[in-house]
């Protein structure tokens, strides 16, 4: 009976370590997904390659996934209201620039 328990324990540890190594090598990909990194798929593939290189490139993947500076949530300007607002702002800025040009011409 003790032999079966020891055998079960050996298989459990091997499976747990195998799964744990895969999860650890996916950490850079999870960081990239969380930060909406534009190259997250490349980081994911490199993470799998890192398994075959025994984790030699894994720290560089972590750094690569953390380097993304586009964490800001950019508002989509696809809606017609936003486009109308932007066009109004543009026309008012054009008027202001022309008024400033006229003032400069009058002074000079």
Summarize the structure.
This protein is mainly alpha-helical and 108 residues long. The chain has 5 helices and no strands. This is DUF3302 domain-containing protein.
Descriptive notes:
The protein is mainly α and 108 residues long. It folds into 2 domains: 1-73, no CATH class; 75-108. 76% of the residues lie in helices and 0% in strands. It contains 5 helices and no strands. Helix 2 packs parallel to helix 4 (58-66) and helix 3 (40-52) runs antiparallel to helix 4 (58-66). The longest helix has 28 residues, at 80-107.
Mean pLDDT: 87
Report the sheet with the most strands, covering strand number, pairing sense and barrel closure. Answer: none
Q: Regions with pLDDT < 50 over 5+ consecutive residues?
A: none
Tally of individual helices? 5
What's the helical proportion of residues? over 70%
Determine the strand fraction and express it as a percent band.
under 5%
Domain count: the total is 2
| Coarse morphology | rod-shaped
Radius of gyration: 28 Å
Note the gap between the termini.
103 Å
Structural class: mainly alpha
Give me the count of strands: 0
- Write down the secondary-structure element order: HHHHH
